[in-house]
Design a protein that fits this description.
The chain has 140 residues and is an alpha/beta fold. It has one domain. It is 35% helix and 14% strand. The protein has helices at residues 24-33, 51-55, 59-69, 73-88, 105-111; strands at 6-10, 36-40, 91-95, 118-122. The chain starts with 5 loop residues before the first strand and ends in an 18-residue tail after the last strand.
Amino acid sequence: MTGGSGTVADIRLNAVSRRPGFSKTRLRDALHEAGIDYLHLRALGNPKHNREPFRTGRVDEGCRVYRQQIDHPDATQALDLLASRGREHPTAVLCVEHDESACHRQVVLDLLPRLPNVAAGSVTGPRRSLGLSPSGSDHT
């Protein structure tokens, strides 16, 4: 996603990072300068008590617990907002984990309708399309 009219949807529970430029305020400001909207969807963050399964390769367990966790009106509202943004503009779903297949992001993306403008990204590596783009490209 380059230059304007896109959105980065940050689904970290706490939008803080030791990596320079990836804490909420600095990230939002840098994206704003590039013409990209920043949206922190805290309600879609993975709770601390559910991070260990993802770290230790028990991804199915982590996803199951996360699905139960987000069965809440705040999370539903955040998913609706994310889907709405994804219908209107290119949207990257951001978290700290490099691989969305080992992250709660995969659950969020699975819960969204197939949207051509939504892709996964992390603060640690390149963004990768989930095969949802009309061109089928691997990069956003």
